[in-house]
Amino acid sequence: MITSRRDFLAKAGMGFGALPFASLLANENINPLAAKRTDHPARAKSVIFLFMEGGPSHIDTFDPKPLLNKMAGKPVPESVRKGVITAMGESKSPILGSKRKFKQCGKSGLWMSDWMPHLQQHADDLCVIRSMYTNGINHAGGVCQMNTGTPLAGRPSLGSWVSYGLGSENENLPSFLVMKDNKGRVVNGPRNWGPGFMPAVYQGVTINNSANPIPNLNPHLSVTDRVQRSKLDLLKQMNQKYAGEYAHNSELEARIRNYEMAYNMQAEAPEAVDLSKEPEYIKEMYGIGQKDTNSFGGMCLMARRLVERGVRFIQLYSGAGSKWDAHTDMEKNHSARFKETDQPVAALLTDLKQRGLLDDTLVVWGGEFGRTPMSEKGSGRDHNPTGFTMWMAGGGTKGGQTIGKTDEFGLYAIEDKMHVHDLHATIMSALGVDHTNLIYMYKGRPERVDQNEGHVKQKVFA
Questions:
Q1: In this structure, is residue 33 part of a structural domain?
Q2: Disulfide: which of 13, 49, 140, 290 matches 22 by Cβ 3.0-4.6 Å?
């Protein structure tokens, strides 16, 4: 039985009469990452997803709840709590008041806390969604669902869906890149940027913010371009011969393409990630060279450079290793995290805007869930998947607005609720993709990014 184009060529391509047809098949969509047409006019060309791993507190940042301080030390009324189950089982613990000072910012009067003095200057660019909810109660499930749509392993990441649906605008750089701010391991590791049941060619590529962002990319100085090309050609020939016998091995096909991508990257990638080419005032704006902001600032600046070069989906992890997780000493934890990220994130928005890139770059900020109004261990907050905040900027979104609402304690989303599936559908829509039309057939079953459950939140867009 013939099961694929490669299988057909292996079995039928030996006949001389089949050669013209085989040639056509071999050249048809030869590059799975070739740029593809959109379903409707795209508002955004690229996405920068700023992932605060561990779960930032919405009620201390963008969703002020005066009742928390009025009732601090008392339990959340049972009528509101409704038997909520928390990750650490402290659902009946007393309310923890917020020490943050909130103010209305920008012409829009968007409410933001004093943890974000730099980002406050961009209030009119932010579309704040206060009514997010998810199914993942712990980090493994929450991070997995925010990235793949489900708390369980096995499905493609959002970046992989973007690569599959739109391809790449730059053949010399990956379409999906991932960075993290420290050597810690992101919960679930590569699963978060993996292709799931899709071919391996759609997986994300990790790089780092260091003097050598892409390890082992460049050959030794003694290796000429001619020698390097001949090596790759020989490897390709050997791999293709092997691939003809194992037609279903997508990892092998991805490896063949990755060799070619690596060769192309040797020409463009070093320049793309070389921050030394940036003016000093730009690096200072991002906080590069400063202890707290150097790492995430460098990542944000690199993201801007990659967007300029046509990279479709860039994901930046702040607090890799769940460092936003604040079960104890909420103040110390989040104060440190915002000290690391507030200036770089604001600089990214400023830089994109000044260069005319914010109009077609969608910036997304958030974590896998929020935090509870109830205290944990007296000074921290537990995981809250039932109501939390994320924001978007650029990419055709309407800034200076707040969408959705949580209850008076910030425990549940109660108006304009937006599930992770809706978030993914909305991001795809911004990129010009109708998520209901983007299908991948897996074992005879049509699969979609939203698992047939998401809806585009039109209020997000201007």
A1: no
A2: 13
